Amino acid sequence: MEINLINQKPNHKATKARYYDMQELQDDLYARSKAGEIFGDLWSLIVSPNNLKLTYRTIKSNKGSHTPGTDGKTIEDIARLSDEDYLNLMISKLSWLQPKKVRRVEIPKPNGKKRPLGIPCIEDRLAQQAILQILEPIMEAKFSPYSYGFRPNKSAEHAINECYRLMQRSHCTYAIDFDIKSFFDEVNHRKLMRQLWTLGIRDTKLLQIIKQMLKAPIVLPSGQIEYPTKGTPQGGILSPLLANVVLNELDWWLSSQWKDFHRQLNKPPKPQYNKNGNRNLGSEYTAMRKTKLKEFYFVRYADDFKIFCKTRKEAVLLKHAITQWLSHRLKLQISPEKTKIVNLKKNYSEFLGFKLKLQPKSHKWVVNARMSDKTKANTRKQLSKQLKNIQKPKSGKVQALEIDLYNSMVMGIQNYYGIANNVTKDLAEIQRTTSIKFKNRFGKALKKEGQIDNIKLKERYGKSKQVRWINGKPVIPIGFYKSRNPMAQKAGACQYTPEGRGLLQKKIPKSGSDEVMHYLMTHPVRNASLEYNDNRISLYAGQHGKCGLTGQELVPGDIHCHHKLPRKLGGKDNYQNLILLTTPAHKLVHATNPDTISYLSSQLRLDGKQLKKLNKLRKTTKLEPIQLATVNETNQVGLIKDMNQLK
After folding, report:
1. CA distance 493 to 499
2. Strands of 364-371's sheet, edge to edge?
3. Which residues of 381-392 are buried (b: 16+ CB within 10 A; e: fewer)?
4. What residue stretches are annotated with the Reverse transcriptase domain (predicted)?
């Protein structure tokens, strides 16, 4: 399993769920699942209007939504539908799902091989997302805290932090690096259905739909059609969740062998608590160590997982037992060449692009974390390729944009690998080779002095003497970086509880009134496109509930959504072309009668900055600007009227 190491983005699912009143429903599903409830009717929740509208909002923000499937359609085709037509389409689609053929593409991997990706048609992607939004909170309540991949608000950084902790504080000196052979291609469909049933998903209609999705025909690059009998295709929206469902059984079996063994005893150890009120598991583990149990821990990220233990003898026994269990229970085989036992005091163990080892320091053993050798080589290759693009930009691109892309790649690499405590050595090595290549390719065009206009770049790299300039554009150095410690996930952090969200979300200004947001959601503009109505809600949040011209609070019945470039002139319903205005402000944008302009100006009393914005809106609608003198005159009339009223 490989993950995108560059430009990873934060999770914004909770914010999106608020727009369509889905947060409360998802919280309820999570709580009921945590309490062990069974779910017999989920289909009605999946096809509810709010869930389907949230589905569109989520998918349209995904770059992959613009990639066509075998039917040639993209999210743009869905965006043009009215709300009613879209809902009818999706309800019909989910009533008895017959998925269309999946388009297979092969994308190059950093190691030179190719990874097969399945691209479903856009309607099937929407159907999968609608199911995911209902299934995910139920499954999150069942998943182990020690799996970190493809889960909301968990990350590779959290997984690496856990590795640090086990190696240093739990004194685990051996690791078993497991590699499941072709995991995504080998998932047993019948077993997966049974696992979903065991986890409380008893809606037979939903289970049948998922089964149909897994068996969707695949169109290979050669044009041949394949009918899968096993596996879950990489590229499908539901695939990551289903992969975690499959391996969740492994997680809990591993936990039951040591970490959670005391829960199975008739007389578990009496719980003890420290001064902060947190449970002290140390005493419980001390008691367990007196038994014949093998002490070990595990960390899993998707299909990559590691076992940590204290002796080689234990590692050999564990490797054999886990290999047998995977084969017997999940019908999965490990790769003998890639699955190995590592003495962490002597050798590096690789995980998620890092390599980890223990080294002596001040009479104790501490973690030495670096970029893996393969990752380092691939990073050099990526940057060298982009360096060539800077020298000879691709068709349709300018050099400045290629430099921006290079800089974003550098920052992405630093952000991801910066949690390795000795990564500065690796970055310095990469810096030396890239510096030589830059010098060879650009010669005297590569300058040592210049300006950094971008504020973020200036804050981060302004003090570096390694910054270079090409035609006035700064090229940031990959070697200028100070490592940081990997952060652990906050205890209790969860997207599906109010308390857990409080630990995850930074305090941000409230984006308008919940009542007005609900009004916009429940009162779509009839016959308008799905995109238009969805963007009204986004705009309300983006404008913090205020008029985009006057700054007045927007209230139900006084909200107009204005096209900056009119539709008759080619304007579309995209977010950038829309702005929310009050009724008088919207009328003033379109007004041509001098008396109307005078009357509305006296009502609104625009200042110079607002007038400039108004005239910019009028210009795109091909209307004459309103002169400042006219506004001043009407403002004076309005002021005299106000003073007379006060008298």
Report:
1. 8
2. 349-351, 354-361, 364-371
3. ebbeebbebbee
4. 88-356
The pLDDT of residue 282 is 55
Torsion region of 2: left, alpha or beta (phi above 0 gives left; psi -120 to 50 gives alpha): beta
Average of pLDDT values for 212-220? 94
pLDDT in tens, 359-412: 999 889 999 999 999 999 999 999 999 999 999 887 666 899 999 999 999 999
Dist CA 599 CA 524 (whole Å): 30
Which residues, in sequence order, are CB contacts of 406 under 8 Å at separation 6+? 383, 386, 387, 389, 390, 475
Q: pLDDT of 29-77, one tens digit each?
A: 999 999 999 999 999 999 999 999 999 999 998 888 999 999 999 999 9
DSSP H helices in 392-463 = 399-417, 423-442, 455-461
Which residues does residue 201 pair with via DSSP β-bridges, in sequence order?
39
Task: Specify the pTM.
Answer: 0.86
Mean pLDDT throughout 588-609? 91
pLDDT of residue 514: 83
**261: number of Cβ within 10 Å:** 16
Statement: residue 426 has pLDDT above 80: yes
Contact 344, 325 (CB under 8 A): no
pLDDT of residue 9: 41
Residues 6+ apart with CB under 8 A from 430: 376, 379, 380, 383, 478, 479
Q: For the chain, which domains are there?
A: 12-258+294-354 (3.30.70.270), 372-475 (no CATH), 514-621 (1.10.30)
Neighbours of 517 (CB within 10 A): 19
pLDDT at residue 484 is higher than 60: yes
What is the spatial distance between Cα 72 and Cα 212, in angstroms, rounded to a whole number?
Answer: 21
Instruction: Fill in the amino acid letter for 644.
Output: N
Rg, Å, the chain Cα set: 29
Q: What is the pLDDT of residue 237?
A: 94
The pair of structure tokens assigned to 418 is 């910066």
- Enter the tokens of residue 426: 């690796």
Instruction: Judge whether 465 and 138 are in contact, CB under 8 Å.
Output: no
Q: What is the DSSP string of 541-567?
A: HHTTTB-TTT-PBP-TTS-EEEESS-G
- Using DSSP's 3-state secondary structure scheme, residue 473 falls into strand
